[in-house]
Amino acid sequence: MSELNDNKLQKALESCAREPVHIPGAIQPQGCLISMDDTFSRILQVSANINHCLAVSPEQALQSSPQQLLGKQLIQRLQRALKDAPFSTTALRTTRRFDEQTRRYNVLAYRSGKRLVLEFEQLHQSSRHRLLPAVNDWLDRFARANDSQALLDTLTQGIRELTGYERVMVYHFDNEWHGSVIAESLGGQADSFLGHHFPASDIPPQVRALYDINPVRSIPDARVTGVPLIPAEDPDNGPLDLSQGILRAVSPIHLAYLQNMDVQGALSIALHNQQQLYGLVAAHALQPRPLPPDVRDAARSLVQAATQRLFLLKAHSEARFLQRVRDSQALISDIRGQLREPATIVQEHGYDWLELFEACGCALVYPKHTIGLGRVPDRPTLQKIVAWLNQESQTHDTWQSHELRHTGLAGLVDKQDACGLLAAPLPLGQKDTGWLLLLRAEHIETRLWAGNPEKPLLDDKEEVRLSPRHSFATWAEQVTGQSRAWSAIEQRAVTGLAEDLAVAVSAHEIAKLNERLEHLAYTDALTGIWNRSRTETVLDSEISAAIRYGRPCSVLLFDIDHFKQVNDTHGHDAGDKVLVTISDILNRSLRPTDHFGRWGGEEFLVIAGNSTLECTLQLAERLRQAIEAGDMGPIGHITASFGVTTWVAGDTRRTLVKRADQAMYRAKEAGRNRVMSETGSGTTSD
Ligand SMILES: Nc1nc2c(ncn2[C@@H]2O[C@H](COP(=O)(O)OP(=O)(O)OP(=O)(O)O)[C@@H](O)[C@H]2O)c(=O)[nH]1
To answer: Which stretches make up the Phytochrome chromophore attachment site domain (predicted)?
Structure first.
């Protein structure tokens, strides 16, 4: 749409929204109206047709007191009824006798500001006795409807049968207040509008607001003009607000709209979901069709009953969905106990989530991790999405869009990959946040509009106003670049899922952290082999095994020769490298059953499990040669001196290592680069 048209449309919408539909100063002719002050002392306004309805001229009526005009008894009944229900409308039945006939009326009474309004509709033939069984029958059918669609279909049939109107539809409003026809029942020559969309401007905000005050709008004859109120305005109180009434005259725009649709009679009843307008039941008659108050009330009861069942069915289906998501969360909880990797969780349950949320891909992204499943953007893109979400959602709330092209993620996510995103934060801690991302593919929809919604303008030379469409012929619009929208319940469910995943992720991170801490506690920071404390623990358990099973346990302790010189000549870093190289030599040369660790600065202890002294001497010799042969870079070659001993009864860790140390000392004394052994006496002396 051009910029000019955009501006025009905006102006037209604003002017349409200003149309004071609640104070039309007139009523529809199927009844008459009397307004009086709220102390029941003065008649303030009457409709011009009061003579026809109540056999009294407007002048006479305006000169009478309410009691004179309506009789003491009716006034007393009204006073009682309005006292009991001061803010709502009250319906009474009454009779009047004139032209030698007794006429029966339905009287709708309500307060309007400081005034009291009475709307009289003449009752011609009581239909109550046949209405009740019919209503009961429909209520039974509603109770048997087990899904929303069946229920709404039944409702449209019920309203059609009750009213005799030819087309009954259920409109549902989307988030932008566009309406779509989701159920319909047709009779006679009525055309179908099922599946059609109606632009939000068809039912402007102030008209929608009226449905919140008064859920029923009845226009039995769309051809007639309104009957004015006399006087047009009450000088003390201004225009009369008829929002709560049933006779309120219809705006000319709406009458033209109905005529353009070939509709001559209409009844609309609001469907409310917890105070919010969910939709409308709209019944159309192709000819004017009077609608007795009883039938109107019965139709309203049917809509109310169906609405309650509709939201009950919706609640059930949402509960089933939540249960399925919870089931998959329960599996995470099991896994949580086993500390399985988040990647495994995503692999095992991700496909369930894709199915449950009708998503094409899902990803779990948290610091240093990106786990994806299904159709998802590449890793760097996922990281960028999450960075954007962290910026966008400072409060870390669940974020969603079914039109990514209109968000800050437009350039990041390719339309081919996804058009919708539901993202729930993983509360991992104050600084770190991860996200669970569910992506939805494009959903190309052919939307059938009842008339072209882009052409609602009428340029009256000077003034631009919204004109009702002249054509309701189908106009098809291809809607692309969108996914199916995310429902509130899906948003709730993904939040819960993300919270559980956060627990799983944290548990895994903690497990990994513990592993790291444990590793640090066990290992020597420089060489990565066991430290002294860990070596002592292992030596203790080897000694225990030696005591219990009588199996041999030998140790060898070696110390690098002239290491101080290495440091002094080549620097401390070069010395460090030597220690690391020696650790590598040990790693390569020893059997898996041997254990070793760094015992002190340049001292290493090897525990040769299940090994006799003789075998350990051979091992020590092998190690000595390996060290001597080792290439130490610019340092050249280095050597080490070894002391070997084996456990004898009564040995403790201290005595055993002390003996090995003595042997090593002797090896140093004897000229270094050699292996010496020491055998224990079998006594317990230190
Ligand atoms: N680079 C390095 N040097 C260490 C480390 N731990 C101990 N040393 C050094 O090892 C040397 C040990 O020196 P000494 O005890 O005098 O023995 P030595 O020079 O090896 O001589 P002998 O043992 O008698 O052959 C000292 O210079 C320590 O500073 C270490 O982690 N890195």
So the answer is: 147-304
